[in-house]
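Look over this entry.
=====
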Amino acid sequence: MLEIGTYTKLTVDRIKSPGAYLINDEDEDVLLPNKYVSEDLQVGDQIEVFIYLDGEERIVATTENPYIKLNDFAVLKANNVNKIGAFMDWGLEKDLFIPFREQELKIKEGSSYLVYMYFDRQTERLVGSTKLSKYLDNTDHQLQIRDKVDLIVWSSSDLGTKVIINKKHLGLLYSNEVFKKLKFGQQITGFIKKTRSDNKIDVSLEEISYKNIEPNAQKILNLVEKNNGHLKLNDKSHPDEIQDVLGISKKAFKKALGSLYKKRLVTIDRKGISLK
């Protein structure tokens, strides 16, 4: 099926005066206008194109590369703002429309914004949005501590910098853990530092390294991670409780816990052990 807003590889079926007609495996065809048809393009050739709606709302193909694709994020500049909304430069002839209802703050002509692009089923058009939270979901994510992830820098908050994780989730980089200047829209690599019971996710730009940890310490660390970053055990816990939970002696527990504390991987208080 031809999907608007995506790249696809199609086969040249015929070449006519308007351009080349391309087909997919389901024999759906789409026009590649003459201005995108190279002189050496022949019937039977395969070509990768981007599918979108032209100025007359017709489904067409292009060999140009837009700055954003379906269900993705990119920094776009506002070419024009009028009484119905904003029109963003996304690298194609027809600007991307952002209605007022999809603007987090009123868009100003000439300014750039981090935009999400989706397919509006009501109008059957590609539409942009700066209300990014609507398209991010932290529930039922499968992220684990130490996972390597792709980040997009979004905006600043009182605690640090909001980032988009794997183009699906919202995360936070704490200010005291970032030692370089970040630009909004910048794409960087990060690591999951902590997942919280309230579905908030902390990330780090540095790899969470737990190298050279002895087996009992690793067992404690794994259990803390599985319990949302907290475990109701400490060096005052009863030996039987430690044995039931971890299967090790209190002496071995205290030694392992001490090594984790020295490596600054955990904090310890009367309520238990927490990831630092």
Remarks:
- The two ends are 49 Å apart (CA to CA).
- The longest helix spans residues 250-262.
